[in-house]
Design a protein that fits this description.
Length: 225
């Protein structure tokens, strides 16, 4: 690293100090991705895959520097996600997410166009505060039930999947906790640049990006679907 003025800059050429370790890391990353894709078929949990690959990487790359490696782990970020998933799990177990999903159906009043608008916008704002994975998992059977309840109106569910995908994905732009990348990026910003962006500071700009993104997505769905 080097300093220019008051800014701390990271030199990318100095990040990779051992090409062999780099190739091992890339290979393990590819294996992890394949295992994540096949986890349901293999009957193993994603957490087991992540810990297994991380352990193998540590043994192959830094077998004698375990303590040093653990010191470099972003523990604050990991603990944040532990707490976040506990809260999301509580919302899921108490039925709050299902309650929210059912009300989207009620508000649409059997209108396909209105249902698309509700799904993309509610999904966007919900995913800004609630992790998009359990929200999406909750919404999938709800959207499928639309077709069963009203096959004539909801005969083609492709637009609804687009609405759910766009809303759940773009919702992460709204808050600092809306996406994993946001949390990790802010943690690295604080660690390497000693700069901290508060939740409200992020929200002030993020909510604008979210609203504009959802407006464009809504227009896209209405015009093309």
């Amino acid at each position: 690293t080097k300093r220019i003025g008051s800014e701390l800059l990271l030199q990318t050429e100095s990040a990779i100090t051992n090409k062999k370790h780099f190739y091992i890391s890339i290979a393990l990353l590819c294996i992890a991705i394949v295992l994540f894709i096949l986890q349901k078929s293999l009957g193993i949990e994603s957490s087991f895959i992540a810990l297994m690959i991380a352990s193998i990487a540590m043994l192959l790359i830094r077998p004698k520097e375990v303590e040093k490696t653990l010191e470099e782990v972003e523990w604050s970020t990991i603990l944040f996600f532990v707490g976040l998933f506990i809260m999301v799990g509580a919302l899921e177990e108490t039925g709050f997410l299902e309650y929210l999903a059912k009300h989207i159906l009620a508000l649409s009043r059997g209108s396909f166009q209105l249902a698309k608008v509700f799904v993309v916008n509610v999904s966007g704002f919900a995913s800004a505060f609630v992790d998009n994975i359990p929200y999406t998992a909750t919404m999938i059977p709800v959207i499928e039930s639309m077709q069963k309840l009203d096959p004539q109106t909801f005969g083609n569910l492709e637009p609804m999947w687009w609405a759910l995908s766009l809303g759940a994905c773009l919702g992460g732009n709204g808050t600092a906790i809306g996406a994993s990348a946001n949390v990790i990026g802010l943690a690295l910003l604080k660690k390497y640049y000693n700069k901290q962006i508060s939740f409200l500071q992020f929200f002030k700009y993020g909510i604008v990006v979210l609203i504009v993104s959802l407006a464009i997505s809504t227009a896209f769905l209405v015009v093309f679907f």
